Amino acid sequence: MSEKTMFDIVEAVALFFLNPLFIAVLFTAVGVGYFRVKKERRSFKVRLLPGLTELKRLLAESWPYALVLSILISGAGLLADPGWLVLFSASALIALLTFYYKVTSPIYFASAAFFALYFIEKYMGNFSFRGWTPGQADLLGDLAVTIPVIAGLFLIVEGLLIRRHTIRYASPSLMHTNRGLRAAAFKTKRLWLLPVVFLVPGDMISAFVPYWPQFTFGESAFSFVPVPVIIGFSQVARSLYPDVLFPKIGRAIVWTGGIVVIVGLAALWLPILGWVALLLGVVCRVAISITASVRDRQGGFAVAPRPAGVVIAGVVPGSPGEKMGLLPGEYIRAVNGLQVSNEKELYDAIQLNAAHCRLQVIDRNGEVRLMQQVIYRHDHHRLGLLVVR
């Protein structure tokens, strides 16, 4: 293989990793973890998860979904217009840099890029970039089907990620209630990166990168283009526990994605339905976020101080507290036979028998459970508990 060929292959791979969106999401994930740890230390003087957790999980949880999406999109022949891909990535980058991750759902990026193409075609019809012109985007033809279907698939993946990978990362913080007491609220702010391979018609890309993967079907040429797709999620849980609220949101998003896919497929017979599918996806996704926030604010705090006992706000992974199966919202009434009502009494009672800890715990349903755990020297000195104080 010649030196020039090697250079072109390296250049093709670098186009993905040098994408501004890819670089921005790496730095943003580090920032999310840093500010989360600061907030937890401010409330509890201890952090729940390491600061680089968000960065480490950025791709680890999402790559299987990216692989399935790439196979579905390419295998089904869902063609993505190059101009739409550029606008899609630009929309995602702008949303990412707002640090307001309620707007980092791919349905917003896909719809914004689609309708931006419409306005470019209508008002900037003479625009041209590296051989691409707005007239190549058939918004009442193939794109009216492929873009809504792709957007719907993204919504389904977003919902599945929220259902499976947000509960564990709910970060507690202390807030003041209307009565001046301190209660715990839980906030999840997550980012996922999906390296999705799109099928792009034409030879525009291979004209600049000759060894980019390409194939022909009849007289048409197609290229495989990897694009970093980001999915973000941000939600606060106050009156509901995270393991109750977040799965509900995830299921609603999955159902919305399925509806968008079905309406998008109906655009095969009536192209305008593709436009309707995108608008429907945006409206439903906004409604899900607003409804979840409004309903959560209407109730009191689920994790609030109790007259007798120490309320658990969080449990450090791998700690004795997690091994005992303790959950946020439960409260500890006695330790080693001693009644406890605040954080100091809790840890004083633990020290009476540092090698063996016996707890009387009241669960979320008000039922009493007795827990015990051997404590080793290397274990967390606070049992790994973040408590309301």
From TrEMBL:
Signal peptide: none annotated. Residues 287-365 form the PDZ domain. Pfam families: PDZ_6. Keywords: Membrane, Transmembrane, Transmembrane helix. It comes from the Bacteria. InterPro entries: PDZ, PDZ_6, PDZ_sf. The keyword Isomerase does not apply. The chain crosses the membrane at residues 12-37, 58-78, 84-100, 107-124, 144-162, 191-209, 252-269. The keyword Repeat does not apply. This is PDZ domain-containing protein.
